[in-house]
Amino acid sequence: MSREKLPHIALLSKVAVDLFWCPNCNVPLISIDKCSRCGERGFPVKATPPRDVRPAFEFDVQQLRGLASTELGIPGKYVDKLIPSNQIILLNKVPYPDVADEVIVGGKVVAHRFFDPVLWRWRLKPVYHGVAAMVREKVGYYAIVNLPKLTRGYEVHRDKIVECELPPYRGSFVAVETSDGRYQAVAIKTRGQRIKIVKVWPSKDYSSPGKCSSIDVAIEANYSRLRRLESRSCIFLQTLKDKMWGDRHFFISFSGGKDSLVALHLAVKVLDLRDVVFNDTGLELPETLSNVDEVAKAYGLRVYRTEIGDKFWNLVSRYGPPARDYRWCCEVCKLAPLVDLIKRVFPGKRLSIIGQRKLESFKRASRSRLSRSSVIPKTLVAAPIHDWCALDVWLYIFREKLNVNKVYFHGIDRVGCWMCPACELGEYEILKELHPELWSRWEEVLCRFATSRGYPEEWVKYGLWRWRSYPGDIRRVLQLCDFDVSRASEVDVVRAMVESPRVMHSGEVLRIELARSSNVSSELVYELLYTFKDLEILYRGDKVVVRYGNYSACIEVSSCYLIEIRGVRDWSSDLEILLKYLLYPNLVPQLCTGCSLCVNLCETGARTVDTLHRVVLERCSRCGSCSRVCPVFRYVTSDLVRFVKLKVLGIV
Fold this sequence. Notes:
The chain is an alpha+beta fold. It contains 21 helices and 26 strands. Helix 17 crosses helix 18 (573-591) and helix 18 (573-591) crosses helix 21 (631-648).
């Protein structure tokens, strides 16, 4: 484990939910081990942190039951022994190269459901109590082996298997137990009648499926928990009202998702607030748009919408597909129109009520319930359900009978841009079935882009467009798919449609020559670089001289855009920062999206709409906010710097 991940692991453990299970009511108990319905003590659920569990809905249950038959060989009449149809089943996300969930039945982890990008299908792997159920009941694919112990990676030959029902295909999962009952494992079928051990643990007890349970029973069992959470959230909102109501414009940020729905409900209940902002990126699912309208009608809301139409589709040909490390779309399609709308509708100081929860990500776990917006000036952000887990949210939604987005009941767990690069392949597969017309449009864009760059077809198939630099687990998946990883590592050095620069490095001098963008002048270069206060700048006619740290640089604007940097002894982070600064002025006129983020985030009026790329120097505070938030600066310059680095190091 890398040192960089250690703080994340510590934070994950700190915010993890304590989850228990009432054996009498057969329902989960959140954070408390005493059931509010029957008073019985619950036992801890040993699931993977942070245990932000959610209920499996009918779509999930039917998929799980189908996989139990097709993947594990369990006959239909025995499927209830692993995946009952009349009980609460929880799903808990776990790390994996694609979508993966622990399946929790009766408070015990019985299986892992995941999308296999190699075999390109959903799979179900029995684990722990699921293996115990299969070997003790002798259902599905199982094997009893005559060995004193089991070891991961060990291949068990047929002569060591004393009883079994093995699958017909290689790679299928098999539940395993030693003949003395001391150890259990999950294995995969290999050649002939052999099995290879994948994971081993001391044997788990098997208990037959518990009594029937339901969401209504779970709500009763968690009555005290839900009452306490609701009370804390209401007090939090009331306190904000008492302190800030007359000083700030209050509004609700609603996404059409479950979390923001609960936050909206609480805000209406406590504050009688009706002003709502909905950010329509042009990439929202039809179910989301319908839900926003339905919720607005039910609560009598005034909904202020951002509407950007086909802006994403118009820009993707210039910027290339967005990626997890190249999310230009967030600035252009979400942040920019949102800032513009909020500044127009709610002038002055503001407070936005959002449905953010700390268990959603490491970044959100580090934030407090009330914080200052990092991107919208004069705006505070309040998260009344910051301490809630996903199961809290769902139980509250069903208790209050809230009109939740129907897309959740079709296997989609997140609401937002439907082709977001943060999604996994398994989620895209669900989307293809739900809205094939949407995916077809996106796939056409990807194929056209891949063809223009000479990328292999796997770039589209395996969703490689979601990264510029491929993480290790994705590289391993590609190797299993017999795909030459070196082909993947060579793509996307510069994703935006810009001409690659000529790079010359001799001694301590680095020269970079780019095609000059229209409307670029030495004066514009000076003005844009002036916004960065860590640069020393001189304007000398047709040249701009810059000093940064140990480097001195000169930009000459003539028939081309020429950068010359002196003092380059080796590659450094300071050199990368300087290069981003120096490349930026030549790219803005060519790739500007017209998002006006630079204008809306400038608090001194140095950037105005009628002089979009120019800077009024006498007003500029040199804070650099206008330039750093620009998607051209954040993403395209980073790509070009990476290209220059690879050239200097002799890699490309």
